[in-house]
Specification:
Elements: H1 2-11, H2 13-36, H3 44-61, H4 63-84, H5 87-116, H6 120-145, E1 149-151, E2 155-159, H7 160-180, H8 186-213, H9 229-249
Antiparallel strand pairs: 1-2
Length: 252
């Protein structure tokens, strides 16, 4: 996945945008399947159309357009469910669909906003490197030093030692990345701290969803790894945090 993503990123921006759209559609399908186990019906048809609209709006017109597309999609989803669903289920189904829209396409749109920024490809590369550093640092520290669970009821394997490992490696990547992009080095520490918290939150949120619906993996489309959302959870949460700090810290 990393090779494909980086190849698309450095070879063609439109291809990378297309890849993000495809991944978003698949991730939304996985979440819809997960919630169906609890009898929540995500309005996939309008959500898919609106989700792609959110991404394209972000890429072509910016953040305000993406938020506008989200509002229009919420309206379309509500009308769709009012026509399609018995009255006692409308509110629950609409709320779950809105959560899916925010969790996947809206958060993913920040990746395209980074790509659209003056730093373009390299800003996205630093964002991906931070996400990888979080996972790699947490894995190395967790398996060697992990003794104190962070949230045992949600994710028993996630430890405070692993969080510290994520933070240390992310700080190294953050400082290097911000310096490379022309910012002051200490912004890299702030970037690393915020993205580490965001990535850990993303992991825990996805673990909570799976535990709530009774799933080990979101799907089995990635043999040995589970579903796409099992790999994208931290990437999605890190995207707006990375955009926020880079927008402030770097020449724009």
């Amino acid at each position: 996945m990393a090779v494909v993503a980086l190849a698309a990123l450095f070879l063609s921006r439109p291809v990378f945008v297309l890849m993000v759209c495809v991944l978003t559609v698949v991730a939304m399908w996985e979440l819809a399947g997960a919630y169906a186990r609890k009898d929540y019906q995500v309005a996939l048809a309008p959500a898919w159309v609106g989700g792609i609209g959110i991404l394209i709006s972000a890429w072509l017109l910016g953040l305000e357009a993406a938020l506008g597309a989200l509002c229009l999609t919420v309206f379309a989803v509500t009308v769709w469910k009012l026509i399609d669903t018995p009255s006692h289920r409308v509110v629950n189904d609409v709320m779950v669909t809105i959560f899916v829209l925010i969790y996947v396409p809206l958060l993913a749109s920040f990746v395209l906003l980074l790509l659209k920024s003056p730093h373009g490809v390299w800003a996205v590369f630093v964002y991906i490197a931070l996400s990888v550093a979080n996972d790699l640092g947490g894995w190395m520290a967790g398996i060697t030093l992990g003794k104190h669970p962070m949230a045992p009821r949600i994710s028993p394997k996630k430890s405070w030692e692993g969080f510290a490992g994520s933070l240390v490696l992310s700080v190294a990547v953050g400082i290097s990345g911000v310096w490379w992009l022309g910012g002051t080095w200490w912004w890299g520490i702030i970037l690393a701290c915020l993205t580490t918290v965001a990535a850990t939150t993303g992991d825990l949120v996805e673990s909570l969803i799976k535990r709530d619906v009774g799933l080990k993996d979101m799907s089995n489309i990635l043999p040995g790894h589970g579903g796409l959302m099992d790999r994208m959870d931290s990437l999605l949460m890190v995207a707006p945090a990375a955009y926020l700090i880079m927008r402030v810290a770097l020449p724009w």
